[in-house]
Specification:
This protein is an alpha/beta fold and about 280 residues long. It is built from eleven helices and eight strands.
């Protein structure tokens, strides 16, 4: 039975890095894996292709070309594909996702995969970006302990609930202080009815990976950094997702942060930023 895993989160939070490392680890373990980038930036598969961008599904559709050529084997035999998106300011990326997935299903190009990973932008307002949730996927949210990152994570929790999808948990990708961020994210996870499924501290090695177009498993397979992603991947394999997830009201999310920043006028600051 195919297992579908959708990785969501705020832009720039590390979704693609997490998704690509999960894909490579499972590929090296012998699973048939497909990694599908759903972000118009089409950068999900770069670490598996040596920073070479694959032709996108929407490019092929636009040029009346065979979509099958948009699915290429990357490192660890992972089947790599990018949906792509319209030119900036032209068209709807979400609508493009809908069309692309309809075609992918019709062609059956990922039918044989045991694990399909979707790397999805954190905007779940547009119906197109909810499509991976509705493909029998279990949703995992990558976040840091920063307010805007958890604000996006909270919206994704609401989107998951509205879509009736399964929620697997939260992956903490630390940006500044692992211990402090862990306490904030644990508080958030408890409030929305889920758990932290994985923790990734700040890893300088990931910058080297970006430049080299390789995952940590390629650069240093037996390193402590590789073990971190291995642990996250193994926990996901053993995890049992739940549909019992519910995002917070804005004031309840702010209240969590006020516990950790008691001397600041946190709520006033965030409200002024939104305005």
């Amino acid at each position: 039975m195919q297992r579908n895993i959708a990785i969501y989160g705020k832009g720039g939070i590390g979704k693609s890095t997490v998704a690509s490392h999960l894909a490579v680890y499972w590929g090296l373990k012998g699973y048939r894996v497909a990694l599908i980038g759903c972000d118009p930036k089409r950068d999900t598969t770069l670490l598996l292709t040596g920073n070479r961008r694959v032709k996108t599904v929407l490019q092929a559709l636009k040029n009346n070309e065979a979509v099958e050529q948009c699915f290429e084997k990357g490192y660890a035999d992972v089947l790599c594909s990018e949906i792509g998106g319209p030119e900036p300011g032209v068209g709807c990326a979400g609508r493009g996702l809908l069309l692309a997935f309809e075609l992918i299903d019709r062609l059956g190009v990922i039918r044989d995969a045991e694990i399909v990973i979707y790397d999805v932008p954190g905007d779940v307002v547009c119906g197109g970006f909810v499509v991976p949730m509705k493909r029998g996927s279990e949703v995992y949210v990558v976040t840091s302990g920063e307010y805007l990152s958890l604000y996006a994570a909270n919206n994704i929790c609401n989107g998951t609930k509205n879509a009736g999808a399964k929620f697997g948990g939260i992956i903490l990708n630390s940006k500044f202080d692992l211990d402090f961020e862990s306490r904030i994210v644990e508080e958030f996870a408890k409030a929305v009815g889920t758990k932290i499924i994985g923790v990734i501290p700040y890893l300088r090695k990931l910058k080297e990976c970006e430049i080299a177009g390789k995952t940590i498993f390629q650069l240093q397979e037996n390193s402590k950094e590789a073990e971190i992603f291995q642990n996250v991947a193994e926990r996901i394999l053993k995890n049992e997702p739940s549909t019992k997830i519910s995002g917070l009201e804005d004031e309840d999310l702010i209240a969590i942060f006020e516990k950790f920043y008691p001397s600041s006028s946190f709520s006033q600051t965030q409200n002024s930023q939104k305005e």
